[in-house]
Amino acid sequence: MTSRAIGIIAGTGLADRLTDSLDDAKSYANTKILVGDQVVPILYFTVGRLNNLEIVVIPRHGPTRDVPDRGPAELIIQKGHEAHLLHMHHMGVSAIYAFNSVGAIDRTVPLASELTFLVPDQIARGFSSFPHSLGKQAKKVHPSMHKPFGKRERAVLIDAAARASAKTIDHGLYIQSVGDCFETAAEISAYKLLYADYRNRVVGMTAGAEASLAQQLQIPYALICANCNWAEGTEGAAPVDHELVLEGMRPAAVMMDQIAENVMMAEASHA
Question: How far apart, in Å, are the Cα atoms of 257 and each of 204, 252, 261?
Fold first, then answer.
């Protein structure tokens, strides 16, 4: 009998590989969740256990590898983020761990090929970010974002990376962009000025929404980021496209797997 549950939100490849480590794993497709008065499908998720810990794994973009079933903009338009977080809440998870690919504005964040990962401690909603609200389904409609990420959960991620012999940077800013297009050089230039007081700045398309919704549900949330590319327009950066991001993630995929497994084992030891 399970005594605790955690959630993991990740890319499709990592989510697939994690489920192989779970006992009694069962996967479900197109599960309908009521978000406000709108019925929203969760394209795919898996529930399994490790010792007495129940683990809910959601591939944020759906079950198809490389080409997303539901891209970042569709996640916003179709309220996919809201469905994912509400489902985690309904499943009784007490913590959520997210695994993300990002592009770095600052060269102080090494590429993922160097097996160094960022565990950010701040978040900004950036340009073109959309509101994410659970309305009356929220436990707290106007939550504080004083500490947007769970302190304990960040520590678990950092320790899990260390046990995998990876390095981490434990201070940084995740800037949410909307997608599906990558940022322009002009937008990155503006971010440099807008967030000039922050270091280790990265851009991504999903974690801002997840963090905001997790706060509304009062579920501790933390993420670890693999820098797959230099942000558009930064010195020496190649033109950013989806293929570049996939290529940038490949050298770090095995390490991200190990970090995620270490997270599950650490949480299972306290279940």
Answer: 20, 9, 6
Whole-angstrom Cα distance, residue 79 to residue 140? Answer: 19
Nearest residue to 75 (alpha-carbon basis) of 35, 104, 124 = 35
Instruction: Round to whole Å and give the CA distance between 204 and 215.
Output: 19
Q: Which helix or strand (DSSP H or E) is residue 59 part of?
A: strand 53-59
Burial 133-165 (b: 16+ CB within 10 A, else e): ebeebbeeeebeeeebbbeebbebbbebbeebe
DSSP 85: H
For the chain, the helix, strand and coil percentages under 3-state DSSP, each to the nearest 5: 35, 30, 40
DSSP SS3 for 173: strand
What is the pTM (predicted TM-score) of this model? 0.96
CATH of domain 4-268: 3.40.50.1580
Q: Would you call 266 exposed, middle or buried from its count of C-beta atoms within 10 A (0-12, 13-18, 19+)?
A: middle
- Residue labelled with tokens 């020496």: 236
Q: Is the Cβ–Cβ distance between 38 and 87 less than 8 Å? A: no
Closest CA to 221 of 116, 111, 132, 113: 132
Neighbour count for residue 44 (Cβ, 10 Å)? 22
Q: Give pLDDT tens digits for 233-268.
A: 998 889 999 999 999 999 999 999 999 999 999 999
